Amino acid sequence: MAELKLEVSDGPSGTIIIDAAGHLDAHTFEQMEKQINALFESEKYKIIAKLDKLEYISSAGCGVFIQFVQEAQENDGNLVLLNATQNVVEVFDLLGLSSLFPMASSMDEAVGLFE
Amino acid sequence: MTSPASPSAPSEFRQELEIASDATLLQQVRTAVGAFVDRTPLPPGERNKVVLAVDEAVANIIEHGYEDAPDGWIRIDLCCRPDALSICIRDQGKRFDPSRVVDPDIETHVRQGKNHGLGIFLMRTIMDVVDYNFEHEAENRLTLIKYFKGASDGGAET
Q1: Looking at CB atoms within 10 Å, which of A48, B84, B111, B146 has the fewest?
Q2: Which among B56, B113, B115 has CB closest to A58?
Q3: What is the ipTM of this complex?
Q4: How many angstroms away from the CA of B13 is the closest CA of chain A?
Q5: How many CA atoms lie within 13 A of B76 on its CB side?
């Protein structure tokens, strides 16, 4: 069974890091959805999704990020994707999302996207 | 879940998968489809995209066709033809014709925070053919075709 493991920690400059490992698909997307919802309910809108260990993403997974990025930005935050794997970048490219989503290849770059 | 691959002609081989309509089985489908694609002439760069297209189709059947009830069946027939990879996905869930779904405007999608409706768009973007039929008034039949490079009916890499 494909799994998604999420580890949440405090990041630099008031950000929250969600470190995602495994597969973000139609079976596991609700985990990510619940996690981001919980952060928003705590008024934490500066989120860095660390994706270097995310092996697979489908439209269901992309949909979670789509669902929340606007609200994060409207609350002076953002939802930044850090170190997305080639597989993940490819899916974002196929959907035409790469130009619409903040993506970073280093933590410094990710933090800079909140300024 | 799978039957062993069997050749029906020297330049053609097939494999059949069957799963219950259970989203926890999507990874098994992806693994099996990926292994089959690895045996075809499709270049490595296309492998993950084809796996994704099948995953999207099966996920849609589970969610929309069977409304997440895990007691339905989904049969996936994989066929490597001389000119193409042909994947036929059958189910007995609610009738659903993907050709009736309009491609989304992605910017609007993001602006509105819509988290659904992208799977069919991905299938159409990745595969050369996405064809739907409702067979015998009882069975949905979705055919996905990816032509090999240089095949006369297509062959353009996406």
Answers
A1: B111
A2: B56
A3: 0.93
A4: 27
A5: 30
Q: Which of A42, A53, A63, A46 is nearest to A6 (CA)?
A: A53
Residue numbers in B near A64 (CB within 8 A): 115
Determine the residue type at B46.
E
Q: Could you report the per-residue pLDDT of A23-44, keeping only the tens digit for each?
A: 999 999 999 999 999 999 999 9
Chain B hits for A59, CB-CB cut-off 8 Å, are 56, 118-119, 121-122
Which of A25, A56, A66 lies closest to B110 in CB terms?
A66
Residues with Cβ within 8 Å of residue A34, at least 6 apart in sequence:
none
User: Other C-beta atoms within 10 Å of A71: how many?
Assistant: 14
Among all chains, which residue has been given the structure tokens 């300024």? A115
pLDDT in tens, B112-123: 877 777 999 999
CB contact under 8 A, A26 and B110: no
